[in-house]
Amino acid sequence: MAPSAHSSVGAAPLALPLDAIAADVGTPAYVYDAATIRSAYGELDAALGRVPHALHYALKANSTLAIVRLLRELGSGADANSVGEIEVALRAGFDPASVVFTGVGKTSAELERAIVLGVKTINAESPGELQRIATLARAHGTTARVALRVNPDIDALSHPHISTGLRTNKFGVPIESARALYREAAATPGLQPTGVHVHVGSQITSLDPLTSAARRIVELVQDLREDGIALDHVDLGGGLGISYDGSRVPSLTEYAAALVDGVASTGLTLVLEPGRALVGAAGLLLTRVVDVKEYPGGPRFAILDAGMTELLRPALYGAFHGIVAVAPRSGALQPYEVVGPLCESSDIFGRDRLLPPLQPGDLVAVLDTGAYGAVMASTYNRRPLPPEVLVDEGARWRVIRRRQTIDDLLALEA
Ligand SMILES: Cc1ncc(COP(=O)(O)O)c(C=O)c1O
Prior knowledge:
The chain is α/β, with parallel strands linked by helices. Helix content is 29%, strand content 23%. The protein is built from 12 helices and 18 strands. The strands form 2 sheets. Strands 1, 11, 12, 13, 14, 15, 16, 17 and 18 form a 9-stranded mixed β-sheet that branches. It has an 8-stranded parallel β-barrel with strand order 2-3-4-5-6-8-9-10, surrounded by 7 helices. Helix 8 links the parallel strand 8 and strand 9. Helix 2 runs parallel beside helix 9, helix 5 crosses helix 6 and helix 7 runs parallel beside helix 8. The longest helix is centred in the middle third of the chain and has 20 residues. The chain is elongated, with a radius of gyration of 22 Å. The N terminus is likely disordered. Bound molecules: pyridoxal-5'-phosphate (PLP). Pyridoxal-5'-phosphate binds next to helix 10.
């Protein structure tokens, strides 16, 4: 499998039949390319080939059933961050034994469901959660497989809102407490420590934080071995970033190469929970220009029919996404403020973007929106959720989630 390009913005979905899709399902709509997902999964899986490994796709990135099924068919396990994601994984055909369950505030009801199902591992985030798991497992006459999520106090060098490995973040237990907690867990009826877990953040574009975290985890595994605690896997979480702006990021092959050596020395199975790196570049948000207006001597706005309700990342993190005209008109490039239709000044997809002349009705694609796009959509301003379309084998495509209707939107209301 060819290594992924280091610096290409997700251009493959642009080759999809976007005109026909827009004509059929309308806009805004998410469009995904199955081939891009297959190729990313295949590259990472092959690059880890030297060590026993298990990929657990992080559903939080995109949990639309057909996407989750596609990952299962490729051989992936699942990483669920809520009981809702566990249920989606089950409906997508995952065996509970191929699901890991993570999350900083799992309720007792969520833990109970995971224990009764017999998930592969519950990644516990605190001493209190370990005790709650033990109590629930004993009440059900079973033993729960657990890993402790360790906080290694490492800066992921990503956006602060998606950096999770610093001492000041709410995630996991401080690494210096981990050894004692493992000893306690190993002696607690109802608990079976089977792994160790770390996840230092998302959209990480330097390998250093990931390799530093791996080193600390490997040291912990060795300490635990001295204590007679034998684990079966090391879960290094997800977090590898993609290139949203064309700058160079590590490829999946480089990422795998950086992690395998350290873990190979433990002889344990390497578990990874990739989300964005598998699906991010496979999706685009297809939208139409609703209006173009220019202030005298001031900015020129292209107002789209998609906004922060469909794609929250720019408003939430100031995230950059490439924006292109699907059928560029001839004429000089012009700077545009590319904005959504919502009554919020943060509803901006791109400032000062050089684009060919745009007119109302033109199709525009917002790139690299396969991860943390549709899953974060909301119905603010009573805007129905957009449809999602999966394209496979060239031009064949199908609606994998239909557009929400106003009736759907009101279905839960008195
Ligand atoms: C515990 C855990 N695992 C995996 C992921 C997936 O991360 P990413 O999509 O950056 O690979 C996340 C997301 O932040 C997470 O919180």
